[in-house]
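Issue 218. Parser rejects a valid record. Input:
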Amino acid sequence: MELIPGLPNDLAFECLIRISFDQFPKASSVCRAWKAVIKQPEFLRRRKASGLTRPVIAICQSRFSLSRLDTVGFRLTLFDPVKRRWHDFPPIPEVVERMPVLCSVVGIGAELAVIGGCDPVTRRYLNSVFIYNFFSATWRRGADMPGEDRLFFGCAASEDGGTVVVAGGRSSTTTLALKSTLAYDVARDTWTTLSCGGLARDSSGKWIGGFTSNIGSCPPLMAEAWAALRGIQLAKALDLQQVILESDSKAIVDGITSNSLPNSLVHNLLATCRRELQGIRDWRIAWIPREQNATADALAKLAVSRPRGIHILPNPPTEIVPYLEYDCSSFFLWRYFAI
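Output the parser choked on:
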């Protein structure tokens, strides 16, 4: 089927990617072929590669009545700094009259997420997630944030636009800041829970100290980065000045040694790792196969059943002793691979 009569489809595709973002819904309604093309991931990728995307600013702002001086509600607006135009988002169906206050707004590819906030009338903390799609100009309800309710949290999207990370904030049940991190996979509409663990051993394999950390929800690579950071901090707390840091994540090893990891969410954690390593006189980092990291993996699994946060272990837990003894036995583990 021809996208545009009389034009080759590749040329028609080049025409479609030049449509302004605020015209996507109208273009999608022209015909099924246009709608199918615009919804393809390749459509947005080609727009970016051709330099046709531009930054926009989403703002949750108050609405004022001309006859009253007090605020009568909130709305979500979009500002296009290139064309210097304001656009109103359609109201979120579930909260038409009560748009959440102090919610977080984050862009994720061709979509925008409104996360959390509090009810403007009852001031109750909300864990709701609403997703707006620029192609269809429609809202959908996402999976609620798990765990403790929170407000004033940090929120950012990964560079690939697939994951939204929520960090910190304040709970309605305590005045203390939350230290947990959550991650939302937009495509799968799921929040995932991960943990990490690690230990310090002397040259003979004897336990010096360890930790478990129930991180909460975050991408797997971020959990690996947290494990590296907590391990370095453990070494400093034990005043270890000659350290070999081992990880079964090659991406983390390369990211610490060569600053080569492009993911901005993990980049900040690895930058902290490098700063912390400055306090250790002699150190190096090495990649090891997962089979040689059994004790750390067992500690990570143990962390899932523990309260959120980090737990320092002066002595090895009973469940970990068999793994520790196995690691000290110096048995070789065969790994099969194809060349």
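Fixed in the parser; the record now loads. The longest helix spans residues 220-237.
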